[in-house]
UniProtKB/TrEMBL annotation:
It catalyses: a fatty acyl-CoA + H2O = a fatty acid + CoA + H(+). It comes from Corchorus olitorius. Homotetramer. Interacts with PCTP. Its main location: cytoplasm. It holds the Pfam family 4HBT. SUPFAM superfamilies: Thioesterase/thiol ester dehydrase-isomerase (SSF54637). Residues 61-135 form the Thioesterase domain. GO terms for cellular component: cytosol; mitochondrion; nucleus; spindle. This is Acyl-coenzyme A thioesterase 13. Catalyzes the hydrolysis of acyl-CoAs into free fatty acids and coenzyme A (CoASH), regulating their respective intracellular levels. Has acyl-CoA thioesterase activity towards medium (C12) and long-chain (C18) fatty acyl-CoA substrates. Can also hydrolyze 3-hydroxyphenylacetyl-CoA and 3,4-dihydroxyphenylacetyl-CoA (in vitro). May play a role in controlling adaptive thermogenesis. It comes from the Eukaryota. NCBIfam families: unchar_dom_1 (TIGR00369). The keyword Metal-binding does not apply. The lineage of its organism: Eukaryota, Viridiplantae, Streptophyta, Embryophyta, Tracheophyta.
Length: 159
């Protein structure tokens, strides 16, 4: 596992370094991932923290469900990399259950786990908790098809 590659995947999702022709404009990733801190990376597990910014609040002034769903996608995708996968694959299903609200400036913790990573499919989970109380805000489950991206070039053999 390349811990730094996993960390870069999560933390650099919020930046747009380089010119617009070198990397695609990833508006939602940058909008939502900005401020996510990686606290722990282990094989099959990632813990991140995040202070809820006002830009991600819904009309009722709590963290928008769409922002949580995007965090489910991004953070659980990174867990695939911790078990040695060379690419994060494509989402097949994302399911989120909401149990409580998180408000502006509230610190939350996200703990993502790889439940199963095979040759073609991965099943991942994530839990969102209030850092101050440990109360669960949301739980997510993500199934991914581990297909290589269209621009993937396998390494060549040195034989």
């Amino acid at each position: 596992m390349d811990v730094e590659a996993v960390k870069r995947y999560l933390e650099n999702s919020a930046s747009n370094d380089g010119d617009e022709y070198e990397q695609p404009l990833r508006f939602f990733e940058r909008l939502i991932m900005h401020g996510v801190r990686v606290d722990l990376i282990e094989t099959g597990r990632i813990v991140c923290s995040f202070k809820v910014p006002p830009r991600l609040l819904n009309g009722s002034n709590y963290l928008h469900a769409g922002a949580i769903a995007t965090l489910v996608d991004m953070v659980t995708s990174a867990v695939v990399l911790t078990v040695g996968a060379r690419y994060v694959g494509a989402s097949v299903e994302i399911d989120v259950s909401f149990m409580d609200a998180a408000y502006a400036e509230e610190e939350i913790e996200m703990e993502a786990r790889a439940l199963h990573v095979g040759k073609t499919f991965a099943v991942l989970s994530i839990e969102f908790r209030k850092k101050s109380t440990g109360k669960i805000i949301a739980q997510g489950r993500h199934t991914k098809y581990l297909v290589p991206p269209s621009n993937f070039v396998p390494p060549t053999s040195k034989l």
